[in-house]
Q: What sequence folds into this?
């Protein structure tokens, strides 16, 4: 039996779980906001520790470490299932995206598994960020 695209779409629509978009958005907002609140608390504590202007940098590094550590313990995946997009937007989502492939392929060895897969997600992001900053810098130099 050959199905048309329309028939296939109807079958998919019938059996696909219904999305609770409103609830998903609220959960993403609250969970992403909670991560940001934790970040603000960490930044305040780094400021009390005497870092001053470097507190923001130390906060970013701390949040990346916490995100990677929670990924390693398998906790971040459960948080991501509940929070949805709220777990992707903060920097902890980036740490999860870097650590997950590395952990998944660690059985293939240190070089071909862990080291090679570590930059599957991070590599394109870093290249794009670096290239964008160079282009922005060139445009700024030309305008100034």
A:
């Amino acid at each position: 039996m050959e199905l048309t695209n329309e028939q296939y779409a109807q079958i998919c629509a019938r059996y696909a779980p219904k999305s609770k978009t409103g609830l998903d958005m609220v959960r993403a907002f609250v969970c992403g906001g909670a991560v940001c609140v934790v970040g603000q608390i960490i930044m305040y504590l780094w400021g009390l520790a005497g870092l001053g202007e470097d507190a923001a940098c130390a906060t970013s590094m701390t949040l990346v470490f916490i995100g990677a550590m929670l990924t390693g313990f398998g906790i971040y995946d459960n948080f991501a299932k509940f929070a949805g997009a709220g777990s992707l937007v903060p920097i902890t989502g980036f740490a999860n995206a870097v650590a997950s492939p590395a952990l998944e392929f660690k059985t293939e060895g240190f070089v071909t598994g862990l080291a090679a897969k570590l930059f599957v997600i991070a590599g394109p992001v870093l290249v794009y960020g670096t290239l964008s900053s160079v282009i922005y810098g060139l445009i700024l130099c030309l305008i100034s």
Notes: Residues 21-48 form the longest helix (28 residues).
